Fold these 2 entries.
Entry 1:
Amino acid sequence: MPNSFGKLFTISTWGESHGGGVGVVLDGCPPGLPLTEEEIQVELDRRRPGQSDIVTPRKESDTVHILSGLYEGRTTGTPISMLVHNKDQHPEAYSEMKTVFRPSHADYTYQTKFGHRNPEGGGRSSARETIGRVAAGAVAKKILAEAGQVETIAYVKRIQDIEMPDDAEVTNALIESNAVRCPHAETAEAMIERIKDVRGQGDSVGGVIECVIRNLPVGLGEPVFDRFEADLAKAMLSLPATKGFEVGSGFAGTTMKGSEHNDPFENRDGEVRTQTNRSGGVQGGITNGEDVRFRVAFKPTATLLQAQATVDVDGNETELKARGRHDPCVLPRAVPIVEAMANLVTVDHWMRQHAQNRLFAF
Amino acid sequence: MPNSFGKLFTISTWGESHGGGVGVVLDGCPPGLPLTEEEIQVELDRRRPGQSDIVTPRKESDTVHILSGLYEGRTTGTPISMLVHNKDQHPEAYSEMKTVFRPSHADYTYQTKFGHRNPEGGGRSSARETIGRVAAGAVAKKILAEAGQVETIAYVKRIQDIEMPDDAEVTNALIESNAVRCPHAETAEAMIERIKDVRGQGDSVGGVIECVIRNLPVGLGEPVFDRFEADLAKAMLSLPATKGFEVGSGFAGTTMKGSEHNDPFENRDGEVRTQTNRSGGVQGGITNGEDVRFRVAFKPTATLLQAQATVDVDGNETELKARGRHDPCVLPRAVPIVEAMANLVTVDHWMRQHAQNRLFAF
Amino acid sequence: MPNSFGKLFTISTWGESHGGGVGVVLDGCPPGLPLTEEEIQVELDRRRPGQSDIVTPRKESDTVHILSGLYEGRTTGTPISMLVHNKDQHPEAYSEMKTVFRPSHADYTYQTKFGHRNPEGGGRSSARETIGRVAAGAVAKKILAEAGQVETIAYVKRIQDIEMPDDAEVTNALIESNAVRCPHAETAEAMIERIKDVRGQGDSVGGVIECVIRNLPVGLGEPVFDRFEADLAKAMLSLPATKGFEVGSGFAGTTMKGSEHNDPFENRDGEVRTQTNRSGGVQGGITNGEDVRFRVAFKPTATLLQAQATVDVDGNETELKARGRHDPCVLPRAVPIVEAMANLVTVDHWMRQHAQNRLFAF
Amino acid sequence: MPNSFGKLFTISTWGESHGGGVGVVLDGCPPGLPLTEEEIQVELDRRRPGQSDIVTPRKESDTVHILSGLYEGRTTGTPISMLVHNKDQHPEAYSEMKTVFRPSHADYTYQTKFGHRNPEGGGRSSARETIGRVAAGAVAKKILAEAGQVETIAYVKRIQDIEMPDDAEVTNALIESNAVRCPHAETAEAMIERIKDVRGQGDSVGGVIECVIRNLPVGLGEPVFDRFEADLAKAMLSLPATKGFEVGSGFAGTTMKGSEHNDPFENRDGEVRTQTNRSGGVQGGITNGEDVRFRVAFKPTATLLQAQATVDVDGNETELKARGRHDPCVLPRAVPIVEAMANLVTVDHWMRQHAQNRLFAF
């Protein structure tokens, strides 16, 4: 099932940029959870186009419809099918994409893999696919909030070389207080400036999103293949435009010596805790009760309002210059998507842990 | 199945550091492949302890036994069960580990997750678990070599701050010509010096392994969740001591502008190729025919011959100082493990691609 | 994923009897297949209510909408999402079902399992769930027809004690020539008479559907757990109202001696064939090139227009008498559902066989 | 993973009749369960050859070795690898099987599917494969006994036309009191007589095994595809020599009217119970607290000490007459295998139910 994710709390997304719509089927959701379309919509509104002046001005309201799995305002434990209709389609804007492969896009690989593809708006490779992830992630978020005060919070840490300080305060209010979703106001301002600047050049930029999951119980994650951080890594690298993932000390930690890197344990108010958190909240693949902290690298947007060298479907060398409305930087809109994927991974592992290790008391 | 990996070409590893042995069941292997225990052993010998003077001097011959799935020297398409007996066990060397949690190890998280754990030699969290991966990876390697001249080659790119030049020649012979498995002789020498140095301090170091997969067909990988690089990321983060993964331009690429980062297409001798390879061989989650190139961050070994602050199973704060024989740097022995995981991912996706997209010609 | 079926050719159904609709996401479909909504609709029309005077007179047009996965009339290899809106809902007809458990229905088990359920129209346990299976099965049917002239044909073999002769001719035209879908006209007439008779009593009947899959290649099915007949058995027992499955000689074959039961091989025009087919087309879990032949037992419909003893959600003993429009016999409408499930199993195993055993020629 | 079974409590079996041995990896077992090799051995001894004078006289001790997953006599939650060495091999007894296809065996289908097969002793299609199932089933049995007094009990209900009375007492002691494992002494005697009789003719017989699972909680099983009875059906049809499965009223129930077949609910001592159990303990795919009762059809053994018409690998028509020691009737030894598979299904669904529906109390 190439279009499904999760072992017990599973999402199956479907839909292309142009066509009947995009959607998701969420299977395995615990029953009895109060849920409304409005709660889903809040998260979708954080990822939709046109929400600020530094993202694509496309007008997509992305209104979610829950088609199944709820009764009298609560989940029933049966599949939750959610649908967002497509709108604002201008197929003519994509006529060139039928015959010319956009550089660093999926046109060429799709064409070769499948032989027959939907070129309009990138088809299945469109970022609209992430709508289903965000919708399902909103359900996961609610489960985590009700079940254990778990809070997942992502933000733009760096745009190109503009990086916020490590010790800046991070709250949802601060993150949502500006268009770029960086909680440090001063840095945010510089980032926004930079984004507007490159947009003016018909160019684009990338950067790094950091995410922290707070208040996790000890014990989530499996020892070998399905390590908590391994599943997070897969979740993040499954997002469009991502090129890297690191947890805790990450790549920078490789320059330290073991004596500098290890996290000593201490007894803090009767709990086993680490004095530092270079492990990033996971040890041996399993959460240790500290904050899980990871970062995701996003490349600069591939679509440029500049001429680029490429070839067409017949192999002729040519040039392509995008028209239309595009994001000069995907990171502000990717923040809720990163949170959604992290929440999906967390609920899935919570259920797995419960099934095997909290079922019988021998 | 927390101890299985792969959708169609699937491995299930089992076993602890101390006990009857470690092993793997490889399910889904195509039939008819010529295979010998010797071919498996070659790869196991690359990861075994005691192979050089910069790795742990433990004497483990790690001799593999193929128990099933072969007949008259060829695979039969049924499960291939491979077993390596445990030897050279000194349970007394681990007596402290029963009661004291080693910092930045899995002792505490295992204890809390499962309630009951095997503390000897780290139990299931021992690096011996990777024997099964390497054994199965050797089968994958042979399939890829026979089927399409695919070659997967990993090497130590950096130890702490000692990094080999990007343009150094990379061949298997160069990599295997020194103990640290860095193909650049001069850099290798400095790395070895550094490792011996920190070992003398009872300390440890980490670094970065780079891996390249050559001669892949276009079309491997699924568009959404099971992207080729997403499955590689999961595979790599599932290895002990890893903290990060990046493909192509990775984290460094996030500082570039789109116009600098995109890979222009060209027609090279009738084939669609990219002029540069910042994509790292994958576009939209699917291989594009260029080299797949990725890097994995390994933290410094957690086991130190120095006193470290920690707590015991009753919550008392205490100190722990490892005894015995340990790797001051895991990277040289991790090189064949990275290759093994990459080969497992590649064969799995090759089979998936074949099943869906090369089955019927409509 | 409790609501998914299939390993490579996978369906995920969703939806309740009352609510936004019912649907299915089909993942893993090969690309390039010509497909229209009309082809899906043909099969849905065979299962819809109101199609004859011996099934429920409910008026449900069950019009299918393909929301994704097609481009210019061909599949793209991405998920095919299909939706059928719900109509003709009379929630008041189900008001009693909120509080009273219908005998031999799923009301009590759902209530206990999930704690919170949708009682309207049986919610997820409604036979409307099978719409998604039939829609996806229509795609599988087309693949099989185009790829290898495989033909799956089911029919009503027996209603209560009224059974058609074993040697009667079986064609699609004969099956569709009467309301009960029994290819033997004389038997069909008696069956229809019986069904009308019990309906007049407010009662119901069951029977046996037989299904044969013709022109299968040798080699489909896995040797151990995922035997072709084991996956058929699961597929059939996953249908509402089924109580049994048998393949080939089935239960009757258990009274024979081995010398009577074995199927001798012969060389027929250069092919290895069996002289008889008590194996039912599978040997060791794998198709042997003969017709796969199996039978499915359907119990009499549980919903009766008669008073029945039961209890309510508070544990009070009470009586329940269904109102409204119900099928006195589910078998005529179950025929296309049995075919759909058989086709889904077949395509799935075809892809699995191709992936492992037809990928590389060593 | 064609050689794995179960979603959360998963077994992967491996091994052929001739070779290093047969075994199983059990993944997902809850930690802390006291377990010994002796407990496993008890069940293996019930299925081993040579245990009575009506089964094959082959001498196979089938001694189990637990290689991993235990520490100090308790499960650790990591994979339990169990191995039984092969012994008593007479490859020469199988020399003909290399070139001649045994009727109603898997020789021809394996050869065609895989191209390369192990013909010795039937290779992977040997009944020795079920050793791994029984070993893992013994763990499941222990979990169920400790967790909820669940008891799974199977017995030979019928051999050819010799059937025990429906109302006979059924206890483990009665079942184990005779060689054929039928709890009704008089019937057992007639069955044994019949088996000896056909063996004298070089022939074989089949029959029906019935199984009942007592004391199950309400709520196991998933509503749609993974119905409790659907997973049982798959489990049973995955056993060698099975041709049919029925639950509750089964095929016989199809002759009843709905008013005769439905199970009225009643309030029995404060619990919702059914007055009859034609549902067989499952309603809507979910256990309802009554005994789960099902029957499995086993065909007569295919191996006969009589000449049979067949063809060889080159397509020449020829005759084959088995030599050596064979079971004239597989049912007595299949009883513990049926129990094992039922217990595996039950534990798996128990864990699934716990994960989704007993995790959070909203």
Entry 2:
Amino acid sequence: MHFEPALPLQSGASIREYALTFETYGQLNAARDNAVLVCHALNASHHVAGRYAGQDKSEGWWDNMIGPGKPVDTDRFFVIGINNLGSCFGSTGPMHVNPDTGRVYGADFPVVTVEDWVDAQARLLDQLGITQLAAVMGGSLGGMQALSWTLQYPERVRHAVVVASAPNLSAENIAFNEVARRAIVTDPDFHGGHFYEHGVLPRRGLRIARMIGHITYLSDDVMNEKFGRELRPPTLPASQGALPPQGALGPIGGPSALAAPLAPAYRYSTQDVEFQIESYLRHQGDKFSEYFDANTYLLITRALDYFDPARAFDGDLTRALARAAAKFLLVSFSTDWRFAPARSREIVKALLENRRAVSYAEIDAPHGHDAFLLDDARYMGVVRSYFESIGRAQA
Amino acid sequence: MHFEPALPLQSGASIREYALTFETYGQLNAARDNAVLVCHALNASHHVAGRYAGQDKSEGWWDNMIGPGKPVDTDRFFVIGINNLGSCFGSTGPMHVNPDTGRVYGADFPVVTVEDWVDAQARLLDQLGITQLAAVMGGSLGGMQALSWTLQYPERVRHAVVVASAPNLSAENIAFNEVARRAIVTDPDFHGGHFYEHGVLPRRGLRIARMIGHITYLSDDVMNEKFGRELRPPTLPASQGALPPQGALGPIGGPSALAAPLAPAYRYSTQDVEFQIESYLRHQGDKFSEYFDANTYLLITRALDYFDPARAFDGDLTRALARAAAKFLLVSFSTDWRFAPARSREIVKALLENRRAVSYAEIDAPHGHDAFLLDDARYMGVVRSYFESIGRAQA
């Protein structure tokens, strides 16, 4: 959907002649009161559910959650997936032309915040004729948008579902974002954010950024379970494969000679892949660097850094959330060390202190922050029950 | 000390005509039984204690622990600090000339392991006429060397002090090392590890590596306490300083306008420093990139990755530690998520199953992995008591 009028941004800048890409699933009912807006996190888009015709691998990023008969049942709800401003999956972003200059935005794309995204989403809903959402939902950064909706447009949201999120980033969260940004910005191919016109991409920086991100999305437990200290590619035991170099089996002559066949040989290299986890991370980094925009990475991580609704209230989250009128479901995951359960509990506490209706589920799951995207019977069950209760209240 | 004979390495390679830089503190007694060897971690050296004449800021890295009247009392013990092979603080490393080729080693410096370092340290002790150590001690990677001493030379170690260490790296530990290495190796100024001859240094990569490392050395708690979400440089409240751009104080007209003077203005930039933690990390990265060698970074992180004494025993740490004859003190820190207390407890358990004498202290300290370098009354007290008991047994 194209928007002519300028959207004022929190920074004081504005953006005009922008487009928002979105998808919808299910039918808007006659009362126009069954709409559910789904907000995405860093590396996702408007394509939240289903597959495109003839593209088997085009599954939406929350397809396990949203669809006919699924926890967010599109037989009952009209679901809207939207790609945010500044992203690189269809909506206006740094790779598009600035109408004020006729040049590609690049690093000149204005800094956008969670609040700006919510404002843009509200304009889209205006155009769709949706006055009030049955629910707004999201995980991680998407959860921040859901929370912000209840503060910016309290009368337009009946329910907010905030998954694996936080009321702001901790210093450590910001630190990880900053290292990723520095890797991108100091890549010689970044060219100050105007790499498009040089015909290059700062792939080195994007790879590093993604590798760092991936570590923070997983738990130590699940990494040990999936990869542990396994070597890559799996090598044969020394007795069956190539002979290891002399001395490679440990300094302890007796026992290690005895145990030798159990331990495959190290390659002894600082630059080659030795462990499975290295291979996995390099692969994730390579893939990401092929399709993700470097300026988008900067913008979205900065939106994360800036989000802090309590900031204008001297850090008092309870006062900050006083404006919220929605009912809430919050979900967190026990091994999520990026947005730990304690961060969700801060939101729950502040809502309860404002006497808001809030349900909270802390799911014991091993997958770290990524758990919000994965199947887990208890997690899916909680969301399903919550949306069933929304449906019943409407019926 | 210069060594002519080749040192065989675990990789099957060897290194000849190498030098080890070391310092000693206190006096070796007539019985030659009061020597304490101190092993260093990634970013440290032989200079463990004291200051160089006329250099006020040249304090040794474990000066709070080692010196006259300190927990490791140099009035009683003869302390030896040694710089490891492949490091960049004096001992033979990648920046030195390979006697076989007449060219600077660079990336061709052989991969060295914890076991190789211990072998090299043992040769130094041979030259110093020290048959048996009163104790070997170290923190982090230094603790791995102390543990390895008890396995490689069980008869030469009476006590091992292993602080904030682990029996091997977890997948997550390896992952952080790998991202740091990729940042260095993919820096165009790395030149395949032969940057010396190009007259450049891969500073970009080293900066990123150090920033990642720093995050893992600190706890989330101490980062929040030291930096939190503070802006940098501290900005005046909007009412006293420059006016923020329009709209910068939040989307909520009423309350945020009211609260405006409390919240300093964001700059809304993706590349400039906005938060204190960013400034801190950039500074750490810049400093490090001025003095640390990139090839050394690769070598030392790889030595960490490879260390795994249980590997030759099908992962059975109890069997792996059966050779140890020393008495042990292990110390861990509650908020250390890099080498968490659980990793030290694995060592304790394996030693106890071998009926070895082991003392273990888990210190409740907020500083994360860095705690092993910092003053903490209980930590210092535990080490002091342990060394006093060593001294009494000798007296």
